[in-house]
Amino acid sequence: MSLVSLIALLDYASVLVFALTGALVASRAQLDIVGFIFFAALTGIGGGTLRDLLLGQGPVFWVGRPELLLLIAAAAVLVFFTAHLFESRYNLLLWLDALALGVAVPAGVGVAIEAGAGPVVTVAMGVITGTFGGMARDTVANELPLVLKQGELYVTAAFGGALVGAALIGMGSSQGWALVACGLTVFALRAGSMAFGWNLPTYRPRPPRNKG
Amino acid sequence: MSLVSLIALLDYASVLVFALTGALVASRAQLDIVGFIFFAALTGIGGGTLRDLLLGQGPVFWVGRPELLLLIAAAAVLVFFTAHLFESRYNLLLWLDALALGVAVPAGVGVAIEAGAGPVVTVAMGVITGTFGGMARDTVANELPLVLKQGELYVTAAFGGALVGAALIGMGSSQGWALVACGLTVFALRAGSMAFGWNLPTYRPRPPRNKG
Amino acid sequence: MSLVSLIALLDYASVLVFALTGALVASRAQLDIVGFIFFAALTGIGGGTLRDLLLGQGPVFWVGRPELLLLIAAAAVLVFFTAHLFESRYNLLLWLDALALGVAVPAGVGVAIEAGAGPVVTVAMGVITGTFGGMARDTVANELPLVLKQGELYVTAAFGGALVGAALIGMGSSQGWALVACGLTVFALRAGSMAFGWNLPTYRPRPPRNKG
């Protein structure tokens, strides 16, 4: 598979899975079917859209690919009619979001490399592509953004995977393998955090030193 | 009237009316006159700005038309000095917002068609142009976004009207009439929802099937 | 110093100081080190990024200057390890934010003038560059946005300074001095508001006139 088709595949997969999470948030807000499509689209294309804008690549990726919007609408309809079958929609949401993060970050890394970005900007584009759609979803829906969850790896998982991808490419690895390793790292870190409580130490305010 | 001037007229009208709603939200937050201008601008130009960015049409529409920003400032000053005359500012806000939605959606549809977009992207641009300014207004002001109001047609009204517009153009109608029909559909759906309670069924969680 | 290097210096300074405020907000949310970097970046580059997008200048300013992202990361690490030394992190946040506003507004004014914008758009770009990063920071972190603080000059300080800058340039002043006067005006208005309670009258709803 060529690099360009791998990146396109990652883009499609991340749009689809993030769209499912957006529709699940719409179900928690008890919206109608168009509300489901709206949140599915905001979440599905938010990250990649911002990435394309920042890289100066307009029109953005989905303007020339209308089938992406139809895929999003299909995902929203599916969730509208089946979400009640799941015992814990929030748990489903969290795991789908982890999966989407694991494909969106390498998609962002790949697009940045194709655009000729250096390593630092490549890592930034991976993190932005991975996190922005979910952040828009949670902010508009008034849910606690996953990026703010204390003691969980989220941005950190995206950052770690993007770093692995950029480092492998810098060391001469093939871009395809670097993107796969990037995505697996993101998912492993996020899943390990959810399942086993992996985390980094968080900031804890200590009382100022005694001056007496 | 040529299509280009019809689109420009719709753009002006939607900027003006959305600006009035932004200033009304500023009055609810009891800001000073510059705060009024700020929210009027965020709401008035938010949707069209995002549309232009997504279509890769930078600089955005108001950069070459400074009179739009002066119009917004005038709207903000007007509301600052007269809002107290209205018995229910929230009701006024809702109806102005419906009117703004009814002109912004066809403006978005028209710009997308002029830019050569296909039907799916055209519908998406109509919805984005119509809803994004109000969404930014409500999110920044910490009000419940109108897109989240249960059991009311809001995104759905924008979507229905954009669909009518794109369908008419696809069937060979003149673009001018298609935009007029688009705007009337949006306003009728939104107004009918506010006045008569029109809505679509919303998602309601059902208990999972009994497994016993 | 040439105008271009003055603008670059203002851009660097505003990125650095806004990044410090973003990291302070991350400390209030008790995030991990990557969460600190994330909020530092969102706040540090948010305003200038939106400005570049609106002016149609993609890729945005930091894509070609990766050292800016490294500067942001360094600022985040510094705050992660030293924030507990300050008695009132919120007070420190407010004063750093005022300083950042005072350098970001003239940076926005300068870039707009370099891009050939007229006076109205120049003022708007100054206000947007100054306020958007902090607004994104507060909205994502679920803090009360500083733009909404009643009875304090915030957007008004940015607007006043941008107006002074654009007016001086319009009257034939050197651009360098105009930017310096712009920044000093912003900081003086914001600091005066915090220290001495300077403000503009805010909107206060009055009861509707008696009709009897």
Structure description:
The structure is a homotrimer of 212-residue chains. Chain A has 212 residues and is mainly alpha-helical. The first copy, chain A, has one domain. Helix content of chain A is 71%, strand content 0%. Chain A contains 7 helices and no strands. In chain A, helix 1 packs antiparallel against helix 4 and helix 4 packs antiparallel against helix 5. The longest helix of chain A has 26 residues. The first copy, chain A, starts with a helix and ends in a 16-residue tail after the last helix. The model of chain A has no long low-confidence stretch (mean pLDDT 90). Chains in contact: A-B, A-C, B-C. The interface between A and B is large, with 34 and 37 residues. Chains A, B, C: This is Trimeric intracellular cation channel family protein. Chains A, B, C: It comes from Paracoccus aurantius. Chains A, B, C: It is a multi-pass membrane protein. Chains A, B, C: It is found in: Cell membrane.
